Amino acid sequence: MMKLIAHARRSTQRVLMQQQHHHLDGRFIKNVRLVARRNKISLRSLGMGLQRSVSYKQRVQPIQRSTTKAENKGRDVSTNLRTPPFQSDLNTNDPVISLDSSYNSWVAEHPSALDSFDRMMKTAKGKRIVVFLDYDGTLSPIVDNPDRALMSDEMRAAVREVAKYFPTAIITGRSRDKVTEFVKLSNVYYAGSHGMDIMAPPRPVKSGTAGNDHQTIALDHRKEISTSHEVLFQPAKKFLPAIQEIFTMLEEKTEKIQGVRIEDNSFCVSVHFRQVREEDYGILEEKVKSVVKKYPEFHLTEGKMVLEVRPSIEWNKGHALEYLLDTLGFSNSSDVLPLYIGDDRSDEDAFKVIRSRGQGYPIIVSSIPKDTNALYSLQDPSEVLSFLLRLARWKKASFSSRTLHEYGF
Ligand SMILES: [Mg+2]
Protein backbone atom coordinates (compact mmCIF):
# COMPACT_ATOMS: atom_id res chain seq x y z
CA MET A 1 0.00 0.00 0.00
CA MET A 2 2.79 2.40 1.01
CA LYS A 3 4.53 1.55 -2.22
CA LEU A 4 1.41 2.43 -4.19
CA ILE A 5 1.03 5.72 -2.34
CA ALA A 6 4.67 6.55 -2.92
CA HIS A 7 4.31 5.71 -6.59
CA ALA A 8 1.13 7.75 -6.98
CA ARG A 9 2.74 10.67 -5.22
CA ARG A 10 5.91 10.45 -7.30
CA SER A 11 4.07 10.19 -10.62
CA THR A 12 1.68 12.97 -9.81
CA GLN A 13 4.28 15.32 -8.39
CA ARG A 14 6.40 14.96 -11.49
CA VAL A 15 3.50 15.69 -13.79
CA LEU A 16 2.39 18.60 -11.64
CA MET A 17 5.89 20.03 -11.59
CA GLN A 18 5.68 20.02 -15.35
CA GLN A 19 2.30 21.66 -15.62
CA GLN A 20 3.27 24.38 -13.14
CA HIS A 21 -0.08 25.80 -12.20
CA HIS A 22 -1.53 25.94 -15.65
CA HIS A 23 -5.03 24.98 -16.44
CA LEU A 24 -5.16 21.27 -16.78
CA ASP A 25 -7.19 19.06 -18.92
CA GLY A 26 -10.31 18.33 -16.89
CA ARG A 27 -9.95 14.59 -17.14
CA PHE A 28 -6.39 14.77 -15.88
CA ILE A 29 -7.36 16.77 -12.80
CA LYS A 30 -10.09 14.21 -12.18
CA ASN A 31 -7.52 11.46 -12.33
CA VAL A 32 -5.17 13.23 -9.94
CA ARG A 33 -8.01 13.74 -7.50
CA LEU A 34 -9.00 10.11 -7.89
CA VAL A 35 -5.48 8.91 -7.09
CA ALA A 36 -5.41 11.19 -4.08
CA ARG A 37 -8.82 10.16 -2.81
CA ARG A 38 -8.27 6.45 -3.28
CA ASN A 39 -5.00 6.60 -1.44
CA LYS A 40 -6.12 9.12 1.15
CA ILE A 41 -3.36 11.51 0.16
CA SER A 42 -4.04 15.22 0.52
CA LEU A 43 -4.04 17.13 -2.72
CA ARG A 44 -1.66 19.60 -1.17
CA SER A 45 0.88 16.87 -0.47
CA LEU A 46 0.56 15.87 -4.12
CA GLY A 47 1.30 19.42 -5.17
CA MET A 48 -2.33 20.38 -5.81
CA GLY A 49 -2.05 23.06 -3.15
CA LEU A 50 -0.71 25.22 -5.91
CA GLN A 51 -4.14 25.28 -7.47
CA ARG A 52 -5.19 27.53 -4.63
CA SER A 53 -2.86 30.17 -5.96
CA VAL A 54 -4.57 30.09 -9.32
CA SER A 55 -7.88 31.16 -7.86
CA TYR A 56 -6.09 33.74 -5.75
CA LYS A 57 -4.52 35.17 -8.85
CA GLN A 58 -7.88 35.42 -10.49
CA ARG A 59 -9.13 37.40 -7.51
CA VAL A 60 -6.31 39.89 -7.27
CA GLN A 61 -5.67 40.59 -10.90
CA PRO A 62 -7.56 43.65 -11.97
CA ILE A 63 -6.85 43.27 -15.64
CA GLN A 64 -9.32 40.83 -17.10
CA ARG A 65 -7.90 37.89 -18.93
CA SER A 66 -9.82 35.01 -20.32
CA THR A 67 -8.37 31.71 -21.23
CA THR A 68 -10.77 30.45 -23.78
CA LYS A 69 -10.53 27.00 -25.17
CA ALA A 70 -9.01 26.97 -28.60
CA GLU A 71 -11.78 27.22 -31.11
CA ASN A 72 -10.02 25.26 -33.71
CA LYS A 73 -12.33 22.45 -34.50
CA GLY A 74 -12.45 21.45 -38.08
CA ARG A 75 -8.80 22.18 -38.79
CA ASP A 76 -6.47 19.54 -40.08
CA VAL A 77 -4.92 17.55 -37.32
CA SER A 78 -1.64 15.85 -36.94
CA THR A 79 -1.67 12.12 -37.34
CA ASN A 80 1.46 11.72 -35.27
CA LEU A 81 0.08 11.79 -31.76
CA ARG A 82 3.10 12.03 -29.57
CA THR A 83 3.44 10.24 -26.27
CA PRO A 84 3.21 12.24 -23.06
CA PRO A 85 6.11 12.75 -20.70
CA PHE A 86 7.00 10.16 -18.09
CA GLN A 87 5.00 7.47 -19.78
CA SER A 88 7.64 4.91 -18.92
CA ASP A 89 7.31 5.84 -15.26
CA LEU A 90 3.61 5.26 -15.14
CA ASN A 91 2.13 2.01 -14.01
CA THR A 92 -0.58 0.96 -16.43
CA ASN A 93 -2.90 0.38 -13.47
CA ASP A 94 -2.39 3.92 -12.32
CA PRO A 95 -5.32 6.19 -13.21
CA VAL A 96 -2.79 8.88 -14.18
CA ILE A 97 -2.07 6.78 -17.24
CA SER A 98 -5.08 8.34 -18.94
CA LEU A 99 -2.93 11.46 -19.23
CA ASP A 100 -1.80 9.61 -22.34
CA SER A 101 -5.21 9.78 -23.98
CA SER A 102 -5.88 13.34 -22.80
CA TYR A 103 -2.51 14.44 -24.14
CA ASN A 104 -3.22 12.79 -27.46
CA SER A 105 -6.60 14.44 -27.78
CA TRP A 106 -5.01 17.75 -26.80
CA VAL A 107 -2.37 17.35 -29.54
CA ALA A 108 -5.16 16.54 -31.96
CA GLU A 109 -6.58 19.97 -31.18
CA HIS A 110 -3.17 21.67 -31.11
CA PRO A 111 -1.18 19.86 -33.80
CA SER A 112 2.57 19.66 -33.68
CA ALA A 113 4.08 22.63 -35.52
CA LEU A 114 6.75 20.25 -36.78
CA ASP A 115 4.24 17.82 -38.28
CA SER A 116 2.19 20.71 -39.67
CA PHE A 117 5.22 22.58 -40.99
CA ASP A 118 4.62 22.04 -44.71
CA ARG A 119 1.00 23.07 -44.49
CA MET A 120 1.89 26.15 -42.45
CA MET A 121 4.50 27.24 -44.96
CA LYS A 122 2.15 26.67 -47.88
CA THR A 123 -0.13 29.32 -46.37
CA ALA A 124 2.89 31.53 -45.70
CA LYS A 125 3.94 31.69 -49.33
CA GLY A 126 4.17 35.27 -50.49
CA LYS A 127 3.51 36.57 -46.98
CA ARG A 128 5.88 38.12 -44.55
CA ILE A 129 6.63 35.99 -41.49
CA VAL A 130 7.68 37.84 -38.34
CA VAL A 131 9.06 35.62 -35.58
CA PHE A 132 8.38 36.23 -31.87
CA LEU A 133 10.00 34.07 -29.23
CA ASP A 134 9.62 33.77 -25.50
CA TYR A 135 12.86 32.96 -23.67
CA ASP A 136 12.52 30.76 -20.53
CA GLY A 137 11.13 27.32 -21.27
CA THR A 138 11.11 28.11 -24.99
CA LEU A 139 14.70 28.88 -25.96
CA SER A 140 16.21 27.74 -22.67
CA PRO A 141 15.34 24.91 -20.33
CA ILE A 142 13.59 25.72 -17.05
CA VAL A 143 16.22 25.34 -14.34
CA ASP A 144 16.30 25.72 -10.54
CA ASN A 145 18.43 28.85 -10.60
CA PRO A 146 16.93 31.41 -12.99
CA ASP A 147 20.37 32.97 -13.43
CA ARG A 148 21.54 29.72 -15.00
CA ALA A 149 18.76 29.52 -17.62
CA LEU A 150 21.26 29.63 -20.44
CA MET A 151 20.42 28.87 -24.02
CA SER A 152 22.61 26.39 -25.86
CA ASP A 153 25.02 27.49 -28.58
CA GLU A 154 22.98 25.38 -30.97
CA MET A 155 19.80 27.27 -30.08
CA ARG A 156 21.63 30.60 -30.39
CA ALA A 157 22.85 29.63 -33.86
CA ALA A 158 19.30 28.62 -34.85
CA VAL A 159 17.82 31.94 -33.68
CA ARG A 160 20.61 33.83 -35.46
CA GLU A 161 19.84 31.93 -38.65
CA VAL A 162 16.08 32.58 -38.38
CA ALA A 163 16.75 36.28 -37.73
CA LYS A 164 18.76 36.46 -40.95
CA TYR A 165 15.62 35.71 -42.93
CA PHE A 166 12.77 37.05 -40.79
CA PRO A 167 12.38 40.02 -38.47
CA THR A 168 12.78 38.33 -35.06
CA ALA A 169 11.97 39.56 -31.56
CA ILE A 170 12.33 37.99 -28.14
CA ILE A 171 9.53 38.89 -25.72
CA THR A 172 10.18 37.87 -22.13
CA GLY A 173 9.24 38.57 -18.53
CA ARG A 174 12.92 39.00 -17.74
CA SER A 175 14.61 42.36 -17.80
CA ARG A 176 15.74 43.38 -21.25
CA ASP A 177 19.35 43.58 -20.09
CA LYS A 178 19.27 40.06 -18.69
CA VAL A 179 17.77 38.49 -21.78
CA THR A 180 20.13 40.41 -24.05
CA GLU A 181 23.00 39.03 -21.99
CA PHE A 182 21.60 35.48 -22.30
CA VAL A 183 20.85 35.60 -26.01
CA LYS A 184 23.86 37.68 -27.15
CA LEU A 185 22.55 38.28 -30.66
CA SER A 186 22.61 41.62 -32.39
CA ASN A 187 20.17 40.79 -35.15
CA VAL A 188 17.08 40.36 -32.96
CA TYR A 189 14.83 42.83 -31.14
CA TYR A 190 14.39 42.52 -27.40
CA ALA A 191 11.28 43.19 -25.33
CA GLY A 192 11.81 42.71 -21.59
CA SER A 193 9.51 42.95 -18.55
CA HIS A 194 6.60 41.30 -20.39
CA GLY A 195 6.87 43.83 -23.19
CA MET A 196 7.13 46.92 -20.97
CA ASP A 197 10.70 47.56 -22.11
CA ILE A 198 11.14 47.33 -25.85
CA MET A 199 14.14 48.10 -27.99
CA ALA A 200 12.71 48.36 -31.46
CA PRO A 201 13.17 50.16 -34.75
CA PRO A 202 11.92 53.76 -34.69
CA ARG A 203 8.18 53.93 -35.32
CA PRO A 204 7.59 54.58 -38.98
CA VAL A 205 6.39 58.10 -39.60
CA LYS A 206 2.79 58.02 -40.69
CA SER A 207 -0.38 59.93 -40.22
CA GLY A 208 -3.79 58.80 -38.95
CA THR A 209 -3.53 55.48 -37.23
CA ALA A 210 -7.19 55.02 -36.43
CA GLY A 211 -7.87 51.70 -34.79
CA ASN A 212 -4.36 51.46 -33.47
CA ASP A 213 -5.06 51.26 -29.75
CA HIS A 214 -1.58 51.41 -28.39
CA GLN A 215 -0.58 54.54 -30.28
CA THR A 216 -1.90 56.82 -27.52
CA ILE A 217 -0.19 54.91 -24.77
CA ALA A 218 2.98 54.90 -26.73
CA LEU A 219 2.99 58.65 -27.18
CA ASP A 220 1.89 59.46 -23.64
CA HIS A 221 4.42 57.45 -21.78
CA ARG A 222 7.14 57.27 -24.28
CA LYS A 223 10.71 57.41 -23.26
CA GLU A 224 12.99 57.34 -26.19
CA ILE A 225 16.66 56.77 -26.24
CA SER A 226 17.43 57.02 -29.87
CA THR A 227 20.34 55.22 -31.28
CA SER A 228 20.92 55.30 -34.98
CA HIS A 229 18.57 52.37 -35.64
CA GLU A 230 16.59 51.66 -32.51
CA VAL A 231 14.26 53.30 -30.05
CA LEU A 232 13.56 52.36 -26.47
CA PHE A 233 9.88 52.18 -25.59
CA GLN A 234 8.94 51.96 -21.89
CA PRO A 235 5.21 52.43 -21.23
CA ALA A 236 5.53 51.77 -17.45
CA LYS A 237 8.36 54.16 -16.80
CA LYS A 238 6.51 56.17 -14.18
CA PHE A 239 6.29 53.05 -11.98
CA LEU A 240 10.07 52.61 -11.71
CA PRO A 241 10.53 54.20 -8.24
CA ALA A 242 7.67 52.12 -6.79
CA ILE A 243 9.07 48.98 -8.39
CA GLN A 244 12.40 49.58 -6.70
CA GLU A 245 10.61 49.98 -3.35
CA ILE A 246 8.65 46.78 -3.92
CA PHE A 247 11.82 44.92 -4.80
CA THR A 248 13.56 46.00 -1.59
CA MET A 249 10.50 45.30 0.53
CA LEU A 250 10.05 41.83 -0.95
CA GLU A 251 13.71 41.03 -0.26
CA GLU A 252 13.34 42.12 3.36
CA LYS A 253 10.02 40.37 3.99
CA THR A 254 11.06 37.05 2.49
CA GLU A 255 14.68 36.85 3.66
CA LYS A 256 13.86 34.22 6.28
CA ILE A 257 12.22 31.88 3.77
CA GLN A 258 14.80 29.51 2.46
CA GLY A 259 15.20 29.23 -1.30
CA VAL A 260 13.31 32.39 -2.34
CA ARG A 261 14.89 34.38 -5.09
CA ILE A 262 13.70 37.89 -5.87
CA GLU A 263 14.58 39.05 -9.36
CA ASP A 264 14.54 42.67 -10.42
CA ASN A 265 13.13 42.60 -13.94
CA SER A 266 13.16 46.40 -14.33
CA PHE A 267 9.42 46.95 -14.81
CA CYS A 268 8.24 43.99 -12.78
CA VAL A 269 9.58 41.95 -9.89
CA SER A 270 9.70 38.16 -9.89
CA VAL A 271 9.55 36.02 -6.78
CA HIS A 272 10.92 32.61 -7.72
CA PHE A 273 9.93 29.77 -5.44
CA ARG A 274 11.27 26.78 -7.33
CA GLN A 275 13.73 26.11 -4.52
CA VAL A 276 11.39 26.91 -1.66
CA ARG A 277 10.14 24.04 0.51
CA GLU A 278 6.53 23.23 -0.22
CA GLU A 279 5.51 23.83 3.38
CA ASP A 280 6.68 27.44 3.02
CA TYR A 281 4.56 28.25 -0.06
CA GLY A 282 1.68 29.55 2.03
CA ILE A 283 3.76 31.91 4.14
CA LEU A 284 5.62 33.15 1.06
CA GLU A 285 2.38 33.92 -0.73
CA GLU A 286 1.11 35.77 2.32
CA LYS A 287 4.26 37.88 2.53
CA VAL A 288 4.15 38.76 -1.15
CA LYS A 289 0.46 39.63 -0.91
CA SER A 290 1.11 41.88 2.06
CA VAL A 291 3.63 43.87 0.02
CA VAL A 292 1.45 44.13 -3.10
CA LYS A 293 -1.47 45.29 -0.95
CA LYS A 294 0.47 48.45 -0.13
CA TYR A 295 0.68 49.33 -3.82
CA PRO A 296 -2.79 49.56 -5.37
CA GLU A 297 -1.32 50.34 -8.76
CA PHE A 298 0.28 46.89 -8.89
CA HIS A 299 -1.05 43.38 -9.14
CA LEU A 300 0.19 39.85 -8.78
CA THR A 301 0.37 37.24 -11.53
CA GLU A 302 1.79 33.75 -11.67
CA GLY A 303 4.15 32.03 -14.03
CA LYS A 304 6.13 28.84 -13.75
CA MET A 305 7.07 28.56 -10.05
CA VAL A 306 7.18 32.33 -9.95
CA LEU A 307 4.97 35.09 -8.59
CA GLU A 308 5.25 38.36 -10.43
CA VAL A 309 4.43 41.86 -9.25
CA ARG A 310 3.50 44.03 -12.19
CA PRO A 311 2.16 47.56 -12.70
CA SER A 312 -1.53 47.49 -13.52
CA ILE A 313 -1.34 48.96 -16.96
CA GLU A 314 -3.06 47.54 -19.95
CA TRP A 315 0.14 46.33 -21.51
CA ASN A 316 1.28 42.77 -21.98
CA LYS A 317 3.12 40.53 -24.39
CA GLY A 318 0.21 40.84 -26.82
CA HIS A 319 0.53 44.62 -26.89
CA ALA A 320 4.28 44.26 -27.32
CA LEU A 321 3.70 42.03 -30.33
CA GLU A 322 1.39 44.61 -31.91
CA TYR A 323 3.80 47.41 -31.10
CA LEU A 324 6.67 45.56 -32.74
CA LEU A 325 4.61 44.73 -35.83
CA ASP A 326 3.73 48.40 -36.01
CA THR A 327 7.30 49.64 -35.68
CA LEU A 328 8.42 47.09 -38.22
CA GLY A 329 5.93 48.67 -40.61
CA PHE A 330 3.35 45.88 -40.64
CA SER A 331 0.54 47.38 -38.59
CA ASN A 332 -1.97 47.54 -41.41
CA SER A 333 -0.43 44.89 -43.53
CA SER A 334 -2.70 42.04 -44.50
CA ASP A 335 0.08 39.83 -45.69
CA VAL A 336 2.08 39.57 -42.48
CA LEU A 337 2.12 36.31 -40.55
CA PRO A 338 3.26 36.70 -36.95
CA LEU A 339 4.62 33.46 -35.53
CA TYR A 340 4.85 33.35 -31.75
CA ILE A 341 6.40 30.52 -29.73
CA GLY A 342 6.01 30.53 -25.95
CA ASP A 343 5.32 28.27 -23.01
CA ASP A 344 4.00 30.47 -20.23
CA ARG A 345 0.64 31.89 -19.19
CA SER A 346 1.79 35.39 -20.13
CA ASP A 347 2.30 34.19 -23.71
CA GLU A 348 -1.43 33.56 -23.99
CA ASP A 349 -1.93 37.32 -24.45
CA ALA A 350 0.20 37.20 -27.57
CA PHE A 351 -1.57 34.05 -28.81
CA LYS A 352 -4.88 35.86 -28.43
CA VAL A 353 -3.65 38.85 -30.44
CA ILE A 354 -2.54 36.60 -33.28
CA ARG A 355 -5.87 34.79 -33.28
CA SER A 356 -7.77 38.03 -33.32
CA ARG A 357 -5.72 39.22 -36.31
CA GLY A 358 -7.00 36.16 -38.13
CA GLN A 359 -3.62 35.13 -39.48
CA GLY A 360 -0.42 33.92 -37.98
CA TYR A 361 0.81 31.01 -35.96
CA PRO A 362 0.47 30.92 -32.17
CA ILE A 363 2.56 27.95 -30.99
CA ILE A 364 2.62 26.73 -27.39
CA VAL A 365 5.54 24.81 -25.92
CA SER A 366 4.12 22.15 -23.64
CA SER A 367 4.52 18.47 -22.98
CA ILE A 368 1.25 18.23 -21.09
CA PRO A 369 -2.34 19.17 -21.95
CA LYS A 370 -3.08 22.82 -21.25
CA ASP A 371 -5.94 25.18 -21.91
CA THR A 372 -4.50 27.57 -24.43
CA ASN A 373 -5.22 30.05 -27.19
CA ALA A 374 -2.38 28.60 -29.25
CA LEU A 375 -3.26 26.71 -32.40
CA TYR A 376 -0.12 24.61 -32.67
CA SER A 377 2.23 22.96 -30.21
CA LEU A 378 5.82 21.93 -29.69
CA GLN A 379 6.79 19.65 -26.82
CA ASP A 380 9.90 21.30 -25.46
CA PRO A 381 12.87 23.55 -26.32
CA SER A 382 14.49 20.79 -28.35
CA GLU A 383 11.45 20.75 -30.65
CA VAL A 384 11.61 24.55 -30.77
CA LEU A 385 15.19 24.16 -31.98
CA SER A 386 14.13 21.72 -34.73
CA PHE A 387 11.31 24.03 -35.77
CA LEU A 388 13.56 27.10 -35.99
CA LEU A 389 16.19 25.22 -37.99
CA ARG A 390 13.51 23.98 -40.36
CA LEU A 391 12.07 27.45 -40.75
CA ALA A 392 15.46 28.91 -41.64
CA ARG A 393 16.18 26.02 -44.04
CA TRP A 394 12.80 26.49 -45.72
CA LYS A 395 13.49 30.18 -46.34
CA LYS A 396 17.01 29.52 -47.50
CA ALA A 397 15.72 26.91 -49.95
CA SER A 398 13.02 29.22 -51.30
CA PHE A 399 15.67 31.94 -51.72
CA SER A 400 17.94 29.66 -53.72
CA SER A 401 15.14 28.28 -55.86
CA ARG A 402 14.08 31.84 -56.66
CA THR A 403 17.64 32.73 -57.55
CA LEU A 404 17.90 29.70 -59.83
CA HIS A 405 14.60 30.68 -61.42
CA GLU A 406 15.81 34.24 -61.95
CA TYR A 407 18.88 32.89 -63.72
CA GLY A 408 16.69 30.77 -65.96
CA PHE A 409 17.46 27.31 -64.52
MG1 LIG B 1 8.51 31.09 -20.79
From TrEMBL:
Biological processes, Gene Ontology terms: trehalose biosynthetic process
EC number: 3.1.3.12
Annotated spans, Disordered: 57-90
InterPro entries, alphabetized: HAD-like_sf, HAD-SF_hydro_IIB, HAD_sf, OTSB-like, Trehalose_PPase
Ranges of Polar residues composition bias in the record: 57-67, 77-90
Keyword terms, alphabetized: Hydrolase, Stress response
Reactions accelerated catalytically: alpha,alpha-trehalose 6-phosphate + H2O = alpha,alpha-trehalose + phosphate
Family: Belongs to the trehalose phosphatase family.
Cofactor: a divalent metal cation
Biological or metabolic pathway of the protein: Glycan biosynthesis; trehalose biosynthesis
Protein name: Trehalose 6-phosphate phosphatase
UniProt cross-references to Pfam families, sorted A to Z: Trehalose_PPase (PF02358)
Described function: Removes the phosphate from trehalose 6-phosphate to produce free trehalose. Trehalose accumulation in plant may improve abiotic stress tolerance.
Gene Ontology terms, MF aspect: trehalose-phosphatase activity
CDD domains: HAD_TPP
Organism lineage: Eukaryota, Viridiplantae, Streptophyta, Embryophyta, Tracheophyta
Source organism of the structure: Juglans regia (English walnut)
Enzyme kind, highest EC tier: hydrolase
